[in-house]
Amino acid sequence: MFARHRRLIASLIVVVLLLGGGYAWVMAHGASLLAAPRAKGPDWSAPAAELADPAAIARGQRLATVTACGVCHGQDMAGHRQMLGGSPFYAPNLTLAARKLSDADFERALRRGVTRDGRSEVVMPAFAYAGFTDAETADLLAWLRSLPPKGAEQPVVAPGFGARWNLVIGRYPLQADRVARRRPPADPGPAVAEGRHLASVACSQCHGADLAGGQALPGPDITVNGYYDRAQFHRLLRTGDGRTEHDLGVMALTARSNLSHFSDAEIDAIYDYLIQRDRLLLAGKK
Fold it and tell me: What backbone torsions phi and psi does residue 121 show, to the nearest 5 degrees?
């Protein structure tokens, strides 16, 4: 009986040691991934005239709306708490950060997923915003710098075990890596270039840079051919209502809060692109 108890205790000790060692390895390996230096690349700067242009500021505000910046940073851009893999993160207060960051540092974080000290962003969806043009980047920066400073700096919290575990197993790749591996959406040609660009910057966060879904993303491949006619697609982006009464969840919320700000012409452009994308992908499969 005592021998059995000793074996049980020994087994428990082994399990505790294995768990402790695994925990320590995940934390250490996660820390090394987070600290890995990234190439900053060339410096970028916004045209000074555009930063002060009211039209640019208005375009930047609209761009922030349709690309859902407020989901993480709050509608007032003052930042708030997010969760990743069970670990808390705090989206920065952009009413303060946009004034402190240089143009180059802002652009690196937005389009390349690299922080000002040369590490990878963790949560900032640079893989989706990598498609922003220089003009769009300048418009967004102009709007953010036009906002009056509000609130306090958000705390910087080291990612916990849950977030590091997801990084280590590759479920949530670091943003600089996602940008490096980014595949742009299928290109059916210049006739639908506007819709391709709009879909790229507005839909990639949920559906992936190539709009194919998967990769631990909440959205599926964006296929409309055979599912939505033009009128139904307009209704979807305007109201979040699909073809049935089934609740579309995140898509419904995003449509009502963000995508509904697209003009009718822009929704038509996105639809035309997605139809041509479906045909191009179907031809490739055949």
Answer: -65, 150
Digit-coded pLDDT (tens) for 111-169: 999 999 999 999 899 999 999 999 999 999 999 999 999 989 998 888 888 888 888 88
Q: Where in the chain is the domain with CATH 1.10.760.10?
A: 190-285
Residues contacting residue 162 through CB under 8 Å, at least 6 positions apart: 84, 85, 86, 87
pLDDT of residue 51 exceeding 90: no
What does CATH list as the number for 48-180?
A: 1.10.760
How remote is the C-alpha of 25 from its chain's centroid? 28
Alpha-carbon distance of 256 to 47, in angstroms, equals: 33
Q: Is 3.30.450.40 the CATH classification of the domain at 190-285?
A: no
Element spanning 96, H or E: helix 94-100
**pTM exceeds cut of 0.85:** yes
Q: How far apart are CA 72 and CA 124, in angstroms?
A: 9
Q: How many residues does the chain have?
A: 286
